[in-house]
Amino acid sequence: MERFLKKPKPASWLLALAVLAAIILVPLLVRADAGLYSRAVGRVVQVRTEKTGVKTGTDGTHEYQETYYRQTLTLRLLNTKDEGRLVRAVSACTSSGVYDTTYAKGDDVFLDHVQRAAGTTGSGSAGSASGEASASAGRASAGAGAGGETVALTAVLGGTKRDWLIAAILTLLFGLFLLIGRREGALTILSLVLNMAAFFLVLHLYTQGKNILLMMIPVTVFFTAMLLFFMYGWNERSRVSFRATLLTLAGVTLLALLVIRFCPRIDYDFMDYLPQPYEQEDANLIFLSEIMVGCLGAVMDVVVTIVMTTDQIFATQPAGTQPDPAGLRTSLRAVGDDLVGTMISLMFFTNTAAGLPSFLLFLRNGIAFRTILRYNIFFGLARFLTGSIGVVLAIPLAAWIAIRHYRTRAGAEEKGGLA
Amino acid sequence: MILLILSGILILFIFLFCGDKGAKSIISTAMNALCLLAALFAIHRGLPVLPVTLCLILLITVITLFYQNEVSPQSKAAFLSVVLVVLVTVPLVLWFAAKANSQGFNPEEYELTDSNGYTRNIHLNMFQIQVAVMLIALTGTVIDEAVAITSSLAGILDNRPDLALPDLIASGFQVSRAVLATSIHTIFYIYAAEYMTLMIQYVSDNSFVYIINAQSLAGELISVAMGGVGCCLIVPCATLLGSLFLTRAGENGR
Questions:
Q1: Are B185 and A392 within 8 A, CB to CB?
Q2: Dist CA B54 CA B87 (whole Å)
Q3: Distance of CA A43 to the CA centre of its chain
Q4: For tag attachment on chain B, is the N or C end more exposed, with fewer CB atoms within 10 Å?
C-alpha cells in the first residue's frame, strides 16, 4: 500500500501521460474537422462592434436599458472551395444576450449563403444581412481587412461550431474518471455510455408512439441490476440492495402518480424543452418517468450504505446470536441520518440551478414570484421534492428489507448448525 | 398545490424516519433556499453576478457543512476542499462557457417574444448568469461528495486509530474511488431526468450534426460535465486534506 503511494507504477505514469495527451489532442483534432462538413465554416479573425441603439424594457416598477450592437465580423473560411479566403458577415447582438450571441475572435462559426460581395444583394432570408455585409465589406477592402487582404465574400452567420468543445469536455471528464477512478472510473464510463444508449433507444421508441413510462420501468430495473452487480459484485448485499432500490423507486413513483392524479391538472406549458404542442396525459407520463429516473442514483446510494451496514453488524455478531433489534434500528437510522442532509442539498441545487436564468428573466419581466414558482421552476422543485422523498424513504425500506433478509438467514444458519 | 403536498410528505417522512440530523436538514434546506432567493433578488436588483454567486456558494457550503454536519476536523477538511475545487473550476467554467457561446435561451426552449407581451430587454448579462448556474450546481454535488469522503476517512480511523498518515491516505483513496462512482451516477440520473424532454426533441427531429453543434447541448452538457469534473477533483483534495486534518486532530487528542 505504502510502496504504491510513494513509487507509482510506471503504468500509472503512462496512463496519466496518455490522458493528458488525449485532453490536449482530441479537441484540437475535432476543431480541425471543418472539412467533414458540407456547410461552410469560418474562423473569426477580426471583430468590429458598434452600438446601434438602446431599447428599454420594464417590469412595471423599474426600467432596464438594453444596449443593442452590430458586429461586423471578418472570418477566414476553413472549408469549401473558397478555403483560406476572407468573408465578411454582420450580426446583431445585445448586452444581455438573452436570445443572441456576441462573437469573439477565434470563434468557429457556420456560414450560409457565402457569395461574392461585388454582386447584388442576396435574396430571401439572406436579404438584409448580406446587403449590409456587402456594404461594409466594400469599405473594408480599402485596407482595413486583416493583414491587408481584400475581403471579397459575404455570408450569413449560422451559429457557433461547438463540436470540438463537446469533444473537449467529454475527453476531460472521461480522462479524469480514468486517472482518479481507475477501475471504477472505467466501469463508470462504460455504464454512462450504456445508460445514454438505452435512454436514446427508449426515447426513440417513444417518438414512435410507445408509452414512455412503461418502457422506462424495465430500463430502470435493468440499470439498477447492472450497476449494483458491476460495482459491488454478484453477492448477497447486491441482491438485497437491488430489491430495496426497486421497492423505494416503486414507492416514490406511485406516490407521485397519486399526487398528480388527485391534484388539479399540471400546466405543462412552461416545462423546459417539452416539445410543443403536447398532450396532458403524455406530459404526465414524461414527468413521472423523470421523477423515477431522477431519484434512482441517490436512492441506490442510500440503500447500498444501509445494506452494507446491516451486513457488517450481522457479520460481527458472535455466532448463534441475533443483534438487539432496537439497537440495530437506531444505528441504521443514524447511518441514514448522516446521508440525508447533504443528499437533500445536492438534490436541491442540481434540480433548481438550471431554472435560474428563466427565473431572472421572468423577474425582470415583472412577473410575480408566486407565478414563477407555479409555472416556471415548478418542475425542478417537484423533482427536488420527489427525489428527496426517495432518499428519505430509502432508509426505512432498505433497513426493513435488509433486517428481514439477514435475520431469516441467521435463523436458518442457526437451525442448520443445530441439526 | 402539488409542491405544498410534496413538501408536506417530505417533512412528514423526515420526522418519521430520520433523527435529529434529518430534522436539521429541513432547516438547512430552508436556509439554503432562502440564500438562493436572496442571491437571485440581489442579482435582479442589479448587484454584480459573479461576486454574488461566490458569496452564495460560500454561504451554502458553510450552512451545509457546519450547521448540518457540525464543526469537526472532517467538516473543516471538507470545507477547505470544496473551496479549493470551486476556485480551480472557476477559470475552467469561464473558459468553456466563453468558447461555447451558449448563454441565454436556445431554440429548443420556450421563447419569449414581444408579441406575447414579454420583453427580452432585461439588461442582465446572460453569460455571467450561465456561469453562476454551473457553479451553483457544481457546489451542491461537490459538498455531498466531500462529506462522504471525509466521513468514511473518519470511519477508517475509528476502526484503526493507530493508522499512520500515508496508510490512511492509501486506504482513503480506495474508498474515495467508490464514492466517486456513486456520486457520478447520482448526478447522472438527476440530469438525465432533467433533460429527458430535451433528449426527446433531439431524438425526434434533429440530425447528429445539428446536435453536436447545438447551443442547448453545449450549454447543458458543459454544466453537467463540470459537475463531473468537480466530483473527480474533490477526490484527491478531500482524501489528502481529510487524512491530514484527522490524523492531526488524533495526535492532539492523544
A1: no
A2: 10
A3: 28
A4: C
B131 touches B86 (CB < 8 A)? no
- Give the pLDDT confidence of A143-169 residue by residue, as tens digits: 344 455 677 788 888 888 999 999 999
Cα torsion angle, A312, A318, A322, A325, sign: negative
> A291, B193: Cβ pair inside 8 Å?
yes
Gap between the Cα atoms of A298 and A314, Å rounded: 25
A399 lies in some domain: yes
Angle of helix A325-352 versus helix B2-17 axis, rounded to 10: 150
Which residue range is the domain that position B199 belongs to? 72-106+124-253
* Residue A280 and residue A152 share a domain: no
Q: Which amino acid is at A70?
A: R
Within 10 Å of residue A168's Cβ, how many Cβ atoms? 24
0.90 exceeded by pTM: no
| B97-143 confidence digits (pLDDT tens) | 888 887 778 777 766 655 556 777 778 888 888 899 999 999 989 99
**How many beta-carbon pairs below 8 A join chains A and B?**
397
For B65-102, what is the HEC assignment?
HHHHCCCCHHHHHHHHHHHHHHHHHHHHHHHHHHHHCC
DSSP state of B195: T
Q: Check CB contact of A273 with chain B, cutoff 8 Å.
A: yes
Sequential DSSP letters for A307-320: HHHHHHHHHHSPTT
A385 interface with B at CB cutoff 8 Å = yes
Instruction: Kindly state whether residue B193 falls inside one of the protein's structural domains.
Output: yes
Distances (CA, A) of B197 to A203, A282, B202: 9, 12, 9
- Distance set, CA A370 to CA A306, A376, A385, B7, B87 (Å): 39, 10, 18, 16, 34
In a domain, A202, yes or no: no
Give the domain range for residue A79.
Answer: 36-160
Q: How many domains does chain B have?
A: 1
Pairing of the two strands A63-77 and A108-116: unpaired
* Domains of chain A: total: 2
